[in-house]
Design brief:
The structure holds two protein chains of two kinds. Chain A is of the alpha/beta class. Chain A folds into two domains: 193 residues, Rossmann fold, CATH 3.40.50.2300; 157 residues, 3-Layer(aba) Sandwich (Rossmann fold), CATH 3.40.50.2300. Chain A is built from 13 helices and 20 strands. In chain A, the strands form five sheets. Chain A has a seven-stranded mixed sheet, with helices on one face. Chain A has a six-stranded mixed sheet with strand order 5-6-4-7-8-9. In chain A, strands 3-16-15 form a three-stranded antiparallel sheet. In chain A, a hairpin with a 4-residue loop joins strand 17 and strand 18. The relative contact order of chain A is 0.14. Chain B is mostly helical. Chain B has one domain: ABC transporter involved in vitamin B12 uptake, BtuC (Orthogonal Bundle), CATH 1.10.3470. Chain B is built from 13 helices and four strands. In chain B, a hairpin with a 2-residue loop joins strand 2 and strand 3. In chain B, helix 3 runs parallel beside helix 6, helix 7 packs across helix 8 and helix 8 packs across helix 10. The chains are: A alpha/beta, B mainly alpha. At the A-B interface, strand 11, helix 7, helix 8 and helix 9 of A face helix 2, strand 1, helix 10 and helix 12 of B.
């Protein structure tokens, strides 16, 4: 009896293994007029093309993902139809952590109607999540992942379907270090990351460049994203007597650090600088009055830098949602959506009945072949590892810390922009 | 002969386990001593900074202790871990925000800070008590006679239910508590500069814990609670309404958690639907550390855990040359839990149980 059951178990395991192998290494699929190695999506006449987001739209970091989702929604409004079909946007929350990214990607991967995905929000979600989508041949474009490793030349074939319109933090970290060293004249700095690929990558780039410029890094610390009591780690930092603390982390922990830094003996006059992950009115809510004077490096979101297209976007945003953008990556999300729509139109083929067929690998190749695509954030050109951004980085300083007065460029005030 | 052959391997295995545990104990002691000596020789921190570490730890520990009381009291009476207790803590703090915000907006909070604080504590305690009692009535009472694993699973379910219910009620973002101007800055206490919020937290936690302890030890109802914890059936035979006492236990644990929620909000300002999870786990750890079922144990465990989290990374890990030691704060906390579970499973102060029930 027991033996029979064991045999069955082995048999089922073998069967599962064989099927999953077969699914992964499927022979070219032929459907309608299209043949594709990764599979084909058929969109019946009059039916919508399904695009999925996987962004953090709940929890303390929700402003980041909701901001991006609004960018996508405006892009859909502007585009109206893609290859003659309306667009339907579905999505999953990713929670800004690896577990959430895995769950969301797994759910999306199970839906064979999804043509392309937009996400994730946080790099920690993309590291495990993107390979899950890639395995199903679903191409994904991230509007806000910035960790260098995601588009590193050594990133591996499991990320073959991953691109991003956000800048690479090699650029942001360098810009931040230059600002701190040359403009603020700071020579001693400490960094804090939260163990996420985004924060760790950015803190390391900043530290490397800062040291190369001639500065001293007094300590490189780490906290965990759910920590609330930062006073001990700040006391440890105070022992090194830095002039500035660079903490490119997320809103919850960033708020705690901002509030508690001035309470720690030895840090009363220290300058604080964070990055694009906390560039949101929610960060002001989290940090309260303590946010006054804090610097943020972030994409340069000014009409001077981005041109009149961005002003038009802002007007539509104001009309549709009745408020200013919530974070820094709405324009990147808009561009990601537009890039996908353009690529779909390039590869979509119709049959005699008017049904549309989209080859998954063809779509992926078309996206990677994007050259000089005119987006809001600049002229996008994708490199072979998925970096498509035309990065423009600025540094902002918080004036009022009143979430109702959030108006990037004015308050927080733009104090510096990267020379290119 | 046969018996001897059977006995010998058993004896040898025990020796091996013993040797392993001794080696483990020794290794931990060597690492701790090595790290401590190394840190002190580095001389990175001043005396004031060490004092700061301890004070920060005590303030955090006071909050853990207040939450831990709920875990330990419920365990003492029902022999079950109420995993929804972290959410009971969240419910009070989150709801009281909606009282705090208008108080701050109208300026009442700045004019009468003490009165406002008491009002907030009352609201939070009332909500937390309500939620705790409701959970007991709906999720645990019907399962009173079920196997032990069943209420444990229900507790986890109740925990998720409450999290997402509050997410649905108040939204998925976080809310920021208003600032108490009165509690800004420092007080000099015995020549040590202590942040006012932390002094308030420590003092209130101490008062609440003292009151609770007196209640359990001195009043008639407290005596009934202790009786139910020793033997439910015998207590019922003595004319104690067991159900009422159990509800009361949940209510008191909930009130303590609600008060802890306000203290937490005073120090950390951010409240959201998921805020109960980590403090809940930490408070559970504190309760086990101190000896679950034991009220002074929960208090001691909470303070101890807070201090170890705050002092530990700097004291033990700096000297070992580990970079960014505060990332490993939870590792230290949970290593300590594992150590206690291995070497003193009854906790630091021991479980207060009738021997036959343990």
């Amino acid at each position: 009896m027991r033996k029979a059951r064991a045999t069955w178990a082995v048999l089922v395991a073998v069967l599962v293994a064989v099927t999953s192998w077969a699914v992964t290494y499927a022979a070219p699929v032929r459907m309608g007029p299209v043949t594709d190695d990764w599979g084909v999506v058929r969109v019946a006449r009059g039916q919508p093309i399904v695009i999925a987001y996987w962004l953090v739209v709940a929890g303390p970091d929700a402003s980041l993902g909701v901001d991006s989702r609004r960018g996508i929604e405006i892009a859909i409004d502007d585009k109206k139809t893609v290859a003659g079909h309306p667009v339907r946007l579905i999505g999953e929350d990713t929670g800004c952590n690896a577990e959430g990214g895995t769950t969301a990607a797994t759910k999306l991967a199970a839906n064979r109607q999804i043509v392309a995905a937009i996400g994730s929000s946080c790099s920690s979600e993309a590291v495990p999540g993107a390979p899950i989508l890639c395995k199903q041949g679903i191409v994904t474009v991230s509007p806000s992942n910035t960790a260098p490793r995601l588009t590193d030349p050594k990133r591996g074939p499991e990320y073959a379907c991953y691109l991003r319109t956000a800048h690479n933090d090699l650029v942001q970290g360098r810009a931040a270090a230059q600002f701190v060293y040359h403009v603020l004249g700071v020579r001693r700095a400490a960094t804090i990351h939260d163990g996420s690929p985004y924060a760790e990558g950015l803190a390391n780039v900043f530290a490397d460049v800062f040291k190369r410029l001639g500065g001293t890094i007094t300590s490189q610390e780490a906290v965990s994203p759910t920590d609330t009591d930062m006073r001990p780690v700040l006391t440890r930092i105070a022992a090194g007597r830095p002039q500035l603390i660079y903490y490119p982390i997320f809103i919850a922990a960033g708020g705690h650090i901002t509030r508690q830094a001035k309470e720690v003996a030895g840090l009363e006059n220290v300058k604080l600088m964070s990055a694009d992950g906390t560039f949101s009115p929610d960060f002001w809510k989290a940090a309260g009055e303590a946010a006054r004077g804090v610097y943020n490096s972030s994409p340069d979101l000014s009409v001077e830098a981005l041109g009149p297209k961005y002003q038009q976007f802002l007007d539509k945003h104001q009309k549709k949602y009745g408020e200013k953008p919530l974070s820094a990556f709405h324009a990147h999300a808009y561009d990601a959506a537009m890039m996908i729509f353009a690529a779909i139109e390039k590869v979509a083929k119709k049959d005699a009945q008017g049904n549309t067929y989209i080859g998954r690998k063809a779509l992926r190749d078309a996206l990677f072949a994007t050259r000089n695509f005119p987006g809001i954030t600049g002229n996008l050109t994708c490199n072979p590892y998925g970096d498509c951004a035309d990065p423009k980085i600025a540094v902002y300083q918080t004036i009022s810390a009143d979430p109702a007065k959030w108006n990037p460029g004015v308050d927080p005030k733009k104090v510096w922009s990267m020379k290119r | 002969m046969a018996a001897g052959a059977l006995r010998r391997p058993v004896a040898r295995r025990l020796n091996f386990v013993d040797a392993f545990l001794w080696a483990f104990r020794l290794a931990v002691i060597v690492v701790v001593v090595w790290g401590t000596v190394g840190t002190l020789r580095l001389g990175r921190y001043t005396g004031e900074q060490w004092v700061d570490f301890v004070v920060f730890g005590l303030a955090q520990g006071g909050i853990y202790a207040l939450i831990a009381l709920g875990y330990t009291m419920v365990y003492g009476i029902l022999r079950m871990i109420n995993f929804a207790h972290g959410e009971v803590f969240m419910s009070g703090a989150y709801t009281a925000y909606f009282v705090a915000a208008p108080l701050a907006a109208s300026g009442f909070l700045d004019r009468h800070p003490i009165l406002s604080l008491l009002l907030l504590v009352a609201v939070a305690a009332a909500v937390s008590t309500g939620v705790a009692v409701l959970v007991e009535r709906v999720a645990y009472r019907p399962l009173r006679r079920a196997p032990r694993l069943v209420p444990l699973i229900t507790a986890i379910g109740a925990s998720f239910f409450l999290q997402y219910a509050f997410r649905g009620l108040y939204g998925s973002g976080f809310k920021a508590y208003p600032e108490f101007q009165l509690f800004k800055g420092e007080w000099q206490i015995l020549g040590i500069g202590v942040l006012r919020t932390q002094a308030v937290v420590l003092a209130s936690a101490a008062v609440l814990m003292f009151a609770l302890y007196q209640f359990v030890m001195r009043t008639k109802v407290g005596k009934a609670m202790r009786a139910v914890s020793e033997d439910k059936d015998a207590a019922a035979l003595m004319g104690i309404d067991v159900d009422r006492i159990i509800v009361l236990t949940f209510a008191i644990g909930g009130a303590a958690a609600g008060a802890a929620g306000i203290l937490y909000a005073l120090v950390f300002k951010q409240v959201h639907f998921f805020m109960g999870f980590v403090p809940g786990i930490k408070a559970f750890t504190s309760a086990v550390l101190g000896g679950i079922g034991n009220i002074p144990g929960a208090m001691l465990g909470g303070l101890f855990l807070g201090v170890v989290e705050s002092v530990g990374p700097a004291l033990f890990l700096d000297g070992l040359g580990i970079v960014a030691p505060y990332q490993l704060k939870d590792v230290i906390a949970f290593t300590m839990l594992v150590m206690v579970l291995i070497f003193r499973p009854q906790g630091i102060l021991g479980e207060r149980l009738a021997a036959k029930r343990a």
